[in-house]
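Support case: user asked for a sample of complex input and structure output to validate their parser. Sending the pair below.
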Amino acid sequence: MNRILPVILATLWAGAAQAAENCTTASAAEAKRPPIQWQADGLAVAAPNGRLVLWPMRPGMKLNREIETEISFADRSSCVTRLPPGTERGASIPVGQKSIKAIDAAICHDDDGLCVPIHIELRP
Amino acid sequence: MISSGDRIAGMSRRSLVTHGMVGLPVLLAACAPTQVDLGHVIPPTYATGEAAAKEAALPASAPMLFMVTAPDCPPCREWKDKYKPVFEKSEARARLRFIMLNSFSLKQGSGVDSIWPAEYRWARDAARVDNRAPYLPLTKYSPLFVLARPNQYIRGATAIRGWTETIWPAIQRETGTA
């Protein structure tokens, strides 16, 4: 158990990876809507009304594995975006220009060996 | 830093799950436990060979250990690589039945019907609301361990830490091998 430098084991969500297309790779500047961002308190998503959604990621941590995250949009389409190893809080992940409805992924913590499915619904 | 297995981002997982992060100008909607049955079914893995023969000779009241695993679960692989060999060779293993239940993915959680055979869902249902756990429902997380006797739930726990600190000691106690 590494308690000195805790990190998150990001895990693949095979089902989502098989079902959805990759999210657009348009840069944040090009996208009309803000991208997913890792912010000071975790993964933050810019919602239509500007509110943020937190992801439980602790300060100072980086992903040590790629995490695949499915983004569901208001028009019922979806895509998969990959947060690469080394992703820190504050990083921006463009996911296109449509309104985000929900986010699904799973994270595993290597300090206690716990995996947690994550489902975030953004309220309009 | 998670120091006791029940902390995320400086707050308890239970608190995070049930109360969100009050006071921050954000919306945390990750709290609803979503256990989605994707329609995929991987049959349980029962003991085979010598282990099956030993289990067949056990009394009906012998303890049963269930473990829910998933192919996209690194700690599950860690358990199989590091802890399972020790468990399989232990004296306690010879005194209980062991059934590995297979989730299709972590997103399913560890408690959907497609994972649990109908005859064992009572154990799952008891584990789900075991308020001794640091976070509920237990059946949202992986890996999940449930120790029971026929129609008698004993203890459930999640994570590698749950195995080392809760389930393994309980197994030793229940099998008289402590």
